[in-house]
Each structure stands twice: as C-alpha cells, then as structure tokens.
UniProtKB/TrEMBL annotation:
Pfam families: O-FucT. Keywords: Carbohydrate metabolism, Fucose metabolism, Transferase. GO terms for molecular function: peptide-O-fucosyltransferase activity. It comes from Oikopleura dioica. This is peptide-O-fucosyltransferase. It catalyses: L-threonyl-[protein] + GDP-beta-L-fucose = 3-O-(alpha-L-fucosyl)-L-threonyl-[protein] + GDP + H(+); L-seryl-[protein] + GDP-beta-L-fucose = 3-O-(alpha-L-fucosyl)-L-seryl-[protein] + GDP + H(+). One of its GO terms (biological process) is fucose metabolic process. Its EC number is 2.4.1.221.
C-alpha cells in the first residue's frame, strides 16, 4: 500500500482519543491495520502494558488530559486540534477516534449538492456541516463490502420482489447495552423514552404489530431487512407471524451465508468477521428505500448521516422509538 511506502513502514506519532489501548481486541485491530498497510511498530516501541498501565511510545496527549472513561470530545476547531495533537511526525495514526469529534452538524440543513461536492472546498468559509458531508461522501465503506451488499440485494432481495424497494429495520433495544443507559438515567431524572421502552420491550407481538402497520402504510415497500442481534429472535418471529408469508423478510443469517459464499477462503475476513459483518449490514440499511433507525444508536446515526449526505429525503428515514409510544398508548388507552 502507498501509505506503508510513504511512511517508511512506521507511524511516527499516535494520536490518542482515550486512555487505554491494551485490550486483546484493540491489539488485534492494530495487527489487522498494520498487516493491511504492510507496516509495524518501530522495533522496541510496541504497545505494551507495564504495572497495569498501557503504554505506547510517541503517543499524544498525556493520559492526564484524557477522560478517565470513554473518549474525549473535541470541538471542530483547527486551533484546538493543532494544540492538542502537536506533532512534527511525517505520518500519524489517530487511534480509534470514535465519538471524538461529533458529526451531528452534517445532519443540519440541506445535503451538499453534487456540483458543490466536485468543487475544491474553501476551508476558510465552508461550514462544518458541509465539510463533514464531504468527509462522509469521500469515505464510503470498502469496495468489496459494497460489492457484497449490491450482490445480496440483486441476487437475494430483488429475486423476491418486483421493484426491489425494501424497509431496513435496525433494532438495538435490550436490557444490556441500550437499557443500561436508561436504567442509569432514571435514577436521576424522568425519561419518557426510557419509560416507554422499559414497559413495552418485553412485548414483541405488540411491537411487531406496530412495525407491520408502519410497513403496510407504505405500499411501495415489498420486503424487510432486519439488522438485530440474535436475542431479538422473538421480535423477528412475531413480525413474520404478523405480516404473513407473502412479504419476504431477510435477516443476518442469509446475508452472512451470501458473504461467505463470495469469499469462502478469506482468512482475513474470518479473523475480522464481527467488524466486517457489522459494516456490511450498515451498507444494506443505507441502500434501503426506507430506514427505521434505533434511537441513541451511533450505528444507526452513522447511516442517517450517510443517507442525508447522499440527499435521500428525510421522510425515508424514521426513528423507530416512536413505535414504543404507539404500543404504550394501546397498552394504556385511558392515558392521554
């Protein structure tokens, strides 16, 4: 890869967004990235843990400037970033800057036009939102992932439809990840969203009925792709039972089978299966006609930002937490 050649096979600086990088998962991601670019740590400067402290040579800033838990949130300020990541190194690696700089401004206003997109940006005057949209448009998922997604849509989804228009549903409400934040929030303040989810999350038939009603209200849609963890099987089964056999429903099993059939002997794909498959499902959701996205999910939000930057109408994307409120209203019809 050109990056490896241009950087002399090593990064000279590492920009940290949080404190620790010594977990087995993080080390595996370093290894995968270095293999991809044919690079490595400078000999003797490998990532290591000493006396319970994670250490990486030539990494900035000092841990004292970073939050004890989670990533730091930085403003969209060139001055602040230059001071925070002051380095003279030729090549730097920004370490997992997830949530480090929020891209929420990319959702404000209109999508950047194709004509404007092809112009060279004037960084002194262009808005943060437009610049963020440029970045989103310039960083699509890897080509091989896009090829798998297009092949799955053409050879699996469209084979069971006339017009190929499908609803993508991302469902990420569980008692672990999502509701953990709710349970913590409710200790300090009221949250109507959390109350609605907590009271209806264990009623998959009611939620499925709302999803089916949403689908049936859009006659142009012919099928559903559901991106959800395995523990959501009761909801998936309830949707299938409620919607009937005439509407095709696709889940991760069929997508995984198709992916592995296209790359049956790819060790790298198998070693990095979780991240690859997650990105592949994002691509399937992004290419859908209509997207029902999960509230509070960065996974869903990334797709929303991508669809907005591609000028997909807002009415083609809906936050699915509203379905909980509809179910709650039917559960308590006496409430106003």
């Amino acid at each position: 890869m050109n990056i490896g050649n241009n950087c002399g096979r090593h990064f000279q600086s590492y920009f940290k967004a949080k404190r620790g990088y010594c977990t087995d998962l993080t080390k595996a991601r370093f290894h995968a990235l270095f293999n991809f670019f044919s690079m490595s740590f400078v000999p003797g400067q490998e990532l290591k843990k000493d006396k319970h402290v994670c250490h990486l040579e030539n990494s900035i800033p000092d841990d004292k400037l970073l939050p004890e838990v989670g990533p730091i949130h930085l403003p969209t300020s060139e001055r602040v970033l230059k001071r925070f990541y002051a380095s003279e190194g030729k090549c730097a690696l920004w370490l997992f800057p997830f949530h480090c700089i929020q891209f929420n401004d990319s959702l404000k206003g209109n999508a950047i036009s194709d004509d404007h997109l092809n112009d060279s940006p004037d960084l002194s005057s262009e808005s943060d939102g437009d610049l963020m949209q440029r970045i989103i448009r310039a960083t699509p998922r890897p080509q091989y992932l896009r090829n798998i997604a297009k092949s799955f849509i053409k050879n699996v989804i469209e084979q069971k439809m006339l017009n190929g228009k499908y609803l993508a549903l991302h469902w990420r409400y569980n008692h672990g990840d999502w509701l953990f934040h709710c349970e913590r929030t409710l200790k300090h303040k009221k949250s109507p969203v959390c109350d609605a989810v907590l009271e209806t999350i264990d009623k998959p038939k009611m939620i499925a009925a709302e999803i089916v009603e949403f689908f049936n209200a859009r006659p142009e849609l012919e099928g559903i792709y559901i991106a959800a963890p395995l523990e959501e099987r009761p909801l998936i089964d309830a949707i299938k039972s409620s919607i009937g056999e005439t509407v095709p429903i696709f889940i991760g099993d069929s997508l995984m089978t198709h992916m592995l059939s296209m790359y049956p002997n790819c060790k790298w794909m198998k070693d990095n299966f979780h991240d690859i498959f997650s990105s592949l499902e994002q691509e399937i959701c992004s290419l859908s006609d209509t997207f029902l996205y999960s509230a509070g999910s960065s996974w869903s939000r990334n797709i929303m930002m991508e669809r907005h930057a591609q000028n997909i109408p807002n009415e083609k994307s809906w936050e699915n937490v509203g379905l909980f409120f509809k179910a709650l209203k039917k559960l308590h019809p006496e409430s106003k």
